[in-house]
Each structure stands twice: as structure tokens, then as C-alpha cells.
Amino acid sequence: MKKAIKILALLLISVLPIVAQTSKNKKMEKKVFSPWKWQDDKSYVQAVEVKNVQSTLYVSGQAAMDDQGVPSDADMKSQLIQAIQNLEKVITHAGYTFDGIVRLNIYTTSVDELWPHFSILQSWLAKNNVKQATSLIQVTRLTETLKVELEATVVK
Question: Containing H/E element for 50?
Fold first, then answer.
């Protein structure tokens, strides 16, 4: 019995590093699901499945705040552009890439005011090969003078 335990222990000691190394070498897989086509024009998918994820980054809502934390009082278009730039900064600073975005929640104080500028976000998503699940949510207000906020989940 002791001999069997020793053999089993030796096997585990020799096999575990190989198994661990194999799981580390698996590449993250991202697969999107949309049973319809209508959402394609709106630059999102119905669901995203990810496998073999090395790590996950949960990004707080990024809005039009300058480097000193002062909120913008500019128009919706300018705030959207700055929110995208701030989202880029956080994601790259953390060592992730934009195509790893799997979820993007968009909060705005006015969908009507955001919609004419939505193509700016759509172009950015297409340029960076982002395929994400998205929710667009109108809220009563955001902090101070902010009009739009982007919250993301990113994987690698």
C-alpha cells in the first residue's frame, strides 16, 4: 500500500506541472451569438462566450473627466469622445486590448442627444474589432455635468 501511494505521489508530482503548463498555454477563445441580424447595424451582439480566460478586467464607468478629475461641461459629442479616450487609457494601462471587451454598458442622460453621435462609438468598436454584449441605459443623471459613461468588462 505504501509503495502504491509513493508511485501515485511521484506521478502527481511529475504530471501536475505539465497539466498546469498546458492550461496556461491555451489561448483565450471568444465566440459571439446573435440569433438575429438586426443588432449588427447597432454594433453589438446578443451574447459573448469566452473560454480559457487568463484574467478579467472590470472597468468602472469612464466619462468625460480630465486628468485632474474635473468633469466636462461640453456637449454630448465631445463628452462621448473623451469617455472613449478615457476607456482606452484604462484598458491599455491595465495591459489589456480593446478586442478583449466582452461587455459594454452605456449610460446616458439622454438617448436622444447621444444617438446622433452614436456612429463615433460604432466606428471605434469596428476599428478595434470589438464584438461585445451591450446595454444602452438612460439615467436621470450622472455625476455633476456628465452626459455619458462607458462601463466595460475586458478579458484576455
Answer: strand 47-51
